[in-house]
Every structure is written in structure tokens, then in C-alpha cells.
């Protein structure tokens, strides 16, 4: 059931991993403020443009990208914190998790050419972290979606040339 899934995300091995990696037992799933998302990359050229995750909490949250399925050629790329000309890349296997501090490294997902990639995106923050009022207003607004659509169309036109 969906309740069982949420219980696993709240207190299961993913939460324990985050607490171990951060050496902080006070990280909790903040689905009360930010819903858990499932994202599927299935259509050719599906991608995520370069961006930094919005800071929604004080102190900033951790965004977890957990790969559920991946038969695609998509790669997650991120720029080095100390040298933005250095780009790292990884193809994530099923059950792999990426931990991305909000406001941290600029990152993207390369365009899908083949296969399918399904991820779960969760937000974890310290138990006493304060939600930054209004910070979420632009996260999924129409303007951002239109800008991303235009960017994808430009990328597609460039590829055709």
C-alpha cells in the first residue's frame, strides 16, 4: 500500500543511509512540506536542464534521487564545486541513490535516446529545519515549465542541424 511505502521512506533503509552518510540522526523525510515525486523519462529527448535545487528549508535540505528502474542511456551530470569547468557523470543503476544538497552543485540529466528511467525524488531535512515561506512558489510554476520547454526545443533544433 502507499502507506507502507511512505513508512519505508520515513524510517527505512534510505533514511538510515542518509543519517549514516551525514552522521546526523535528525534527518527526516519532509513529505509534510514537499511531496515525494516519481519521475519517468520515457520519451526521446526527455531530460532535465542544468539547475541548482531550490533551498526550501533553513538549514538547506538534502534532495535524494533514488533510481527505481533504468534501461536508458541517460546520465546525471554535475559540476565540481571548486571548478565548474569540471563535469562529472554517472549512469545510475536500479536501487542507486544520489544525495544532492539543495543550493549545491549545478546538475542535469542528459537527453534520453533509448530505454526508460524511473526515479523517486524525496526531500530530507533536519527535524527542526524551518520551511522557508514562499521558497517553493517558483519550483514548479508555469514560467519555469515554459522556459524548460523552450530550452528543450532549442536543443532539439541544434541537434537536427
- The percent of residues in helical segments reads 10-25%
Global shape:
globular
The number of strands is 11
- Poorly predicted spans: 140-144
Spatial gap, N to C terminus: 48 Å
**How many helices does DSSP assign?**
3
Content of β-strand: 25-35%
Encode the helix/strand succession as letters: HHEEEEEEEEEEEH
Structural class: alpha+beta
Largest sheet: 5 strands, antiparallel
Taking all Cα atoms into account, the compactness measure Rg is 16 Å
Average residue-wise pLDDT:
88
What does this structure look like?
It is a single chain. The chain has 161 residues and is α+β, with helices and mostly antiparallel strands. The protein is 24% helix and 32% strand. The protein contains three helices and eleven strands, in the order H-H-E-E-E-E-E-E-E-E-E-E-E-H. The protein has helices at 2-11, 13-22, 142-160, and strands at 27-29, 37-41, 48-51, 57-58, 62-70, 76-79, 87-90, 97-101, 107-109, 117-126, 130-131. The strands form three sheets. Strands 1, 2, 5, 8 and 10 form a five-stranded antiparallel β-sheet that branches. It has a four-stranded antiparallel β-sheet with strand order 3-9-6-7. Strands 4-11 form a two-stranded antiparallel ribbon. A hairpin with a 7-residue loop joins strand 6 (76-79) and strand 7 (87-90). Helix 1 packs parallel to helix 2 (13-22). The chain is globular. It starts with a helix and ends with a helix. Residues 140-144 have low confidence and may be disordered.
What are the main properties of this structure?
alpha+beta, 4-stranded antiparallel sheet, 5-stranded antiparallel sheet, 11 strands, single chain, 3 helices, 161 residues, 24% helix
Amino acid at each position: 500500500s502507499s502507506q507502507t511505502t511512505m513508512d519505508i521512506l520515513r524510517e527505512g533503509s534510505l533514511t538510515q543511509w542518509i543519517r549514516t552518510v551525514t552522521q546526523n540522526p535528525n534527518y527526516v523525510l519532509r513529505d509534510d512540506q514537499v511531496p515525494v515525486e516519481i519521475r519517468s523519462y520515457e520519451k526521446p529527448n526527455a531530460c532535465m536542464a542544468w539547475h541548482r535545487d531550490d533551498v526550501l528549508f533553513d538549514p538547506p535540505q538534502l534532495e535524494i534521487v533514488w533510481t527505481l528502474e533504468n534501461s536508458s542511456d541517460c546520465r546525471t551530470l554535475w559540476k565540481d564545486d571548486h571548478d565548474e569547468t569540471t563535469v562529472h557523470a554517472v549512469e545510475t543503476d536500479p536501487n542507486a541513490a544520489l544525495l544532492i544538497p539543495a543550493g549545491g552543485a549545478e546538475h542535469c540529466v542528459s537527453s534520453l535516446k533509448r530505454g526508460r528511467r524511473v526515479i523517486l525524488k524525496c526531500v530530507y531535512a533536519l527535524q527542526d529545519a524551518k520551511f522557508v515561506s514562499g521558497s517553493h512558489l517558483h519550483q514548479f510554476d508555469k514560467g519555469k515549465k515554459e522556459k524548460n520547454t523552450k530550452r528543450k526545443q532549442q536543443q532539439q533544433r541544434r541537434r537536427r542541424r
